Amino acid sequence: MKGKKFLFVTAVFALFLFTPLCVSASDLRLPDSAWDVNYTVEVSAPDGGVNFRWGPGVEYGKIQESMIPNGTLLPIFKEATAQNGNNWGLTDYNDTSGWIALTQVSVVADSTSEPEKGIVFKHFMENGMEYATVTSYDKEGKTLWTYKTDSYEGAQCNRVSEIGQQNGYFYLVEDGVVAALDVLTGEIVWKNEEFIGAGTEKGYVFDKNGTLYISGYLGPDLFIVDKNGKTLYRKDSFEKGYWPYEMELKDENILRIHFESDMEGKGTQPWMEIRLEELEYR
């Protein structure tokens, strides 16, 4: 692909030093990328509990040595995506704020809340096994259909993740496969088994033609599939040592991919821009 130019810009921000022992509430990390939520979860981890940490990721120190035990109900106020692509939740426990891995909890239904409406994706981790459900509800909250994924052994990255609704389909990633469900019936319309990646919370975007651009946390850095499930383009890695986590489309022709820091945790936050007209599939 001669003539293609990729702009790769690295913005260096403050480098934080972490010690094994965290003792101050000032150590609590609130990433700029975190977003507000409001729901309740129950701890249901295969190890009998979930670790309580100062930041969203296993690289952050523990607030306490003992785990928050299974069966504990916790309010979740914010979510953030960790370096491995999994989501973490900010909660309060014993009058202290901290982060827990959301792969180790289950969402608790609130009987006082409004009934579910539209199409709802729910992720579960039970006894070390991961799965998800996609359920369509009518305006009164009545279930129209439910799709349940297979169960998979828990791994570093989520093996099941949501993409969302587009083109009359509901998209998800299941064990490295991009799947499209019919929004009216919940039936699988097509699967693309060439992705072979773990989806991230914000690592995808659709263009005006319904083409899906998606990144896998550990690769591929860019995968493009049309609305009929056909692979248009694949790039395993643009730059070694960086992991894509967010994507945006500018003016329908410039794709920007945001990456997280390298293996040494240098605190870099690079991004790159790709002119889609220069890719061979167009």
TrEMBL record:
Matching SUPFAM superfamilies: Quinoprotein alcohol dehydrogenase-like
Signal peptide residues on this chain, from the entry's feature table: 1-25
Protein name per the record: Uncharacterized protein
Statement: the UniProt record of this protein carries the keyword Signal: yes
Alphabetized UniProt keyword annotations: Signal
UniProt superkingdom: Bacteria
